[in-house]
Design brief:
Helix content: over 70%
Radius of gyration: 23 Å
Shape: globular
Structural class: mainly alpha
Strand order of the largest sheet: 1-2
């Protein structure tokens, strides 16, 4: 059976099995989406059983996201260098082996390490899926395929907490990682049977300096954001980490200008065709991941739900799977500017609605996720199409990695920033009730609402009830501040979308003309 590959630039016909291939690729994205958030509903259980602190919880979430963001620049080149199908299968194997390791972890540090390795596997899976869509679909069908891809990737977001809740009802917390094994096994079989090999026309060189600098900058930045509420924003280590991240970012930019095969070509990064959708995806992911991190704890700690009922309440965000194809359709008809701008405004409204929720208005928290999902679906597909359109043939892995880097970078920053705002808001209110507690108990209460519940379980009686009530009030203060912060960022995103996404870029090869020794001259329809 003849298979279309990206080795032959003359091939323009779509692959005859393209829709079956898309189903396999969507399964790949589904498992990654589930794993992004499945751990969220297990955080209270993990905190209790492994003795994790509030900072540990943020790192358990962010180790996965941060590794994805940091390594995607490298993996995009590897995907193009070694072939899209081979990269996809290698990613599956790394991901599933690390999942088994995570399920057996007996300390927060060990779990964080395995989550990072899972992210490393994901860095091969994510760009390979989008690059393969570019391989097997022609320009006419590609936006529709990307809309379906975005919808399925988004479907994993609400399914993660629900699947996690079901598993935690019957098994221990390690089961949330073992569930990856059968899903990945099915995806491996589908990939082996259906998916063609795709490879760049020329194998790109690796850029170890760019990789080291980009990962170092991201880790320093996220570490500083997570640690600042506990250590203080003027703490020497925190200030040093912020400064180091800026220095490494500047060094990364200079290194990319000199690299023979840079992770992110400077000519590409300077074009509005690439930078505008990259910024939009980053902002959208900031609100998505950060809000789910906050609202998961709201449903479990403030409202007192077990993992499964809490996960079901997060299903409202599944509306993202409905609006993502709509976003692709609108992008085809009117371009990305107005769908993305409207999406950002809807996201801001959803986040503001969530900020109004308290222990007596739970419905607002649920409804906020419905609004949030509708807005995010309008953003995802147009931005993914726009980013892919900026890279020439043979660079599908790089373009796909850029889109996924924006998603994971925004997600890591969202969890870090909004988690920090949540912690700061909680800490500002909880200090008033810890004066009569022993030092160790007071420290646990001040660390997080989960710590307060643990101390209350040892106290018992009226004192425990007062402590829980105070912790809930303090948590709701941080919850409100965090979601209002996210809403403000999304409003800024709407303004940027209306300004930056003017017209549609139509000449993809013009964005990276260094291939032909020319200066970049992106063409735009006004």
């Amino acid at each position: 059976m003849t298979q279309q590959t990206s080795d032959d630039p003359s091939v323009t016909q779509p692959h005859p099995r393209r829709w079956a291939i898309l189903a396999v690729l969507c399964l790949s994205l589904l498992v990654l989406g589930i794993d992004n958030l499945i751990v969220q509903v297990a955080l209270p259980t993990i905190q209790s059983e492994l003795g994790a602190s509030a900072t540990d919880l943020q790192w358990i979430v962010n180790a996965y996201i941060l590794t994805l963001a940091g390594l995607l620049g490298l993996s995009g080149g590897l995907v193009d260098r070694f072939g899209h199908r081979r990269a996809l299968m290698a990613g599956y194997l790394i991901f599933v082996l690390a999942s088994v390791g995570a399920s057996l972890s007996d300390s927060p540090a060990e779990l964080i390490a395995y989550r990072a390795v899972m992210g490393a596997g994901g860095t091969l899976i994510m760009p390979a899926t989008l690059a393969l869509i570019r391989d097997v679909f022609d320009e006419r069908e590609r936006p529709q395929a990307i809309g379906i891809w975005a919808a399925m990737a988004a479907l994993g977001i609400p399914l993660g907490p629900v699947v996690g809740g079901v598993l935690l009802e019957h098994y221990d917390w390690g089961s949330i990682f073992l569930v990856n094994v059968p899903i990945v096994a099915l995806a491996l079989i589908g990939c082996w049977v259906l998916v063609p090999e795709g490879r760049a026309v020329t194998a790109p060189r690796l850029d170890p300096a760019g990789l080291a600098l980009s990962v170092g900058a991201l880790v320093a930045l996220v570490w500083a954001i997570i640690e600042a509420p506990e250590r203080g924003y003027t703490d020497t280590a925190v200030v040093t980490a912020f400064v180091l991240s800026l220095v490494l970012m500047a060094a990364f930019w200079q290194a990319e200008k000199r690299a023979a095969e840079p992770l992110l070509p400077p000519d590409l990064a300077r074009t509005r065709a690439f930078s505008a959708p990259f910024i939009m995806v980053t902002i959208f992911a900031f609100g998505l991941f950060g809000a789910v991190f906050v609202l998961t704890q709201y449903f479990q700690f403030a409202m007192g739900y077990e993992p499964l009922p809490a996960g079901v309440r997060l299903l409202g965000i599944a509306t993202i799977a409905l609006s993502a194809p709509l976003g692709a359709l609108l992008d085809q008809r009117i371009g990305p500017r107005w769908p993305v701008t409207a999406g950002m405004l809807i996201v801001a409204a959803g986040l503001a609605t969530g900020a109004l929720a308290d222990t007596s208005t739970e419905a607002l928290g649920v409804f906020s996720l419905v609004i949030l999902g509708m807005g995010m679906g309008l953003i995802m597909a147009p931005c993914a199409v726009a980013i892919l359109a900026t890279v020439p043939e043979g660079k599908g892995g790089v373009g796909s990695a850029a889109a996924e880097t924006a998603l994971q970078l925004g997600g890591a920053l969202g969890v870090a920033v909004l988690g920090s705002v949540l912690s700061a808001g909680y800490g500002a209110k909880i200090d008033d009730v810890t004066g009569d507690l022993p030092a160790s108990a007071a420290a646990a209460v001040e660390d997080s609402i989960g710590g307060a519940y643990g101390v209350a379980s040892q106290l018992g009686g009226e004192q425990a009830a007062r402590l829980i009530e105070a912790a809930r009030d303090a948590f709701m203060n941080g919850h409100e501040l965090a979601l209002l912060t996210a809403a403000g960022v999304s409003l800024l995103g709407a303004l940027l979308a209306a300004w930056l996404l003017r017209g549609r870029q139509v000449a993809a090869t013009a964005v990276m003309p260094q291939q032909q020794g020319q200066q970049p001259q992106p063409t735009t329809k006004r």
